[in-house]
Amino acid sequence: MPTQTPRLAVLDGLRFAAAAAVLVYHFVAVNHHAWGERTSTSLPGAQAVTAYGSFGVQLFFVVSGFVILMTAWGRDVRGFVASRAGRLFPAYWASVLLTVVLLALVVPGRRDVDLPQAAANLTMVQRAFGIPDLEAVYWTLWSELRFYVLVGVLVAVGLTRARVLAFVVLWPVAGAIATQTGSELLATVLVAPDAPLFAGGMVLYLLTRERRSPVLWLALTLNVLLGAALSGRIQSGRIENSTDVVVSPTAWWVAIVVCFALVAAATLTPLARVSWGWLTALGALTYPLYLVHSSWGRWVIESVHPYLSRAATLAVAVAVCLALAWVIHRAVERPLGPRLRHALDRDLRRDLDRPSHAAAAAGSAQGEPVAAR
Question: N vs C: which end of the chain shows fewer Cβ within 10 Å?
């Protein structure tokens, strides 16, 4: 049975804050023409600040490292796979379908999308086949999915403190070596750019169980430093390619350190005991909000801005995206997530039980109890 852990409401709030930061980054900071002109022209002062909302992605990854290890602890592979599939796919499928509706029916011709691309996107592994994402934000799901596979392998081997500790130290270093040596396949499998963020989040979970371990604190420090040096630099490049903001090395180092510090505060301090229900409610909207905000929010801005002020337009776009997220959560995630999880768990359990049934039948056929063998 999985270890029962109290709900970390502040961590839920952090997840929502990360999604909100990315949303504002896409709506306000990224240079696009949804406002009728380049964002850098229409909102120059706001762009310089909201560009740093892009680091909400790195905050997501640190939180994910914590939550996924917490979810996996005490589970077998069957339970872990069923849990992750039930959590990820219903809202994701809804997001893909909503994007197809937008591009094919609401604003046809804005961007080419065909049935094979849409169908491939339903798998969440379209990037492995060189098929473009329907939504730009799906790149983070590809990173998350590869991280889940690595954790699944670790679960199959057996989760112990020593194995997890070795994993969180060696994995990011191996990913960095693969990148430096030009081993693209290995770097892809190891999620090299973001490995320190996921690994650091995993260390933070271990620290909730053993807070005075100097080895764990050293492992956390290693991943913070690697995360700032590698993932922070890469994310700053993405910001500079999408906005007119130049991110200094000091700024990206501070951003990554803040990401780790926020998750540490939410999980290792008295904030971990906060149980405000509204934070949990916001946390429930995080994933669907992140999935649908990009294309739908931009369409709302393009449609409304000619008639409303910039502030009012932004408020309407955020409200529409929150409403879509709420509908997906209530109409898709809540009813379908548990059903998918239970169905997968039951089916995988049957597959795992089959060998023992076959052995029992063989033993009976030979007139010999299996236990006697």
Answer: N
Q: Give yes or no for residue 362 having a pLDDT over 60.
A: no
Q: Is 353 exposed, middle or buried (0-12, 13-18, 19+ CB in 10 A)?
A: exposed
CA-to-CA dists, residue 123 to 32, 126, 129, 144, 213, angstroms:
29, 7, 11, 14, 41
- Residue from 149, 155, 125, 151 nearest 138 by CA: 125
What's residue 344's pLDDT? Answer: 94
Q: For 120-156, how does the pLDDT look when each residue is reduced to its tens digit (9 = 90+)?
A: 999 999 999 999 999 999 999 999 999 999 999 999 9
Distances (CA, A) of 267 to 54, 163, 230, 260, 273: 23, 22, 25, 11, 9
pTM of this structure = 0.90
Of 173, 161, 175, give the one whose Cα is nearest residue 205. 161
Tell me the average pLDDT across 105-126.
89
Buried residues in 298-307 as b, exposed as e (16+ CB within 10 A): bbbbbbbbee
CA distance 190 to 172: 8
C-alpha span between 49 and 226 (Å, rounded):
25
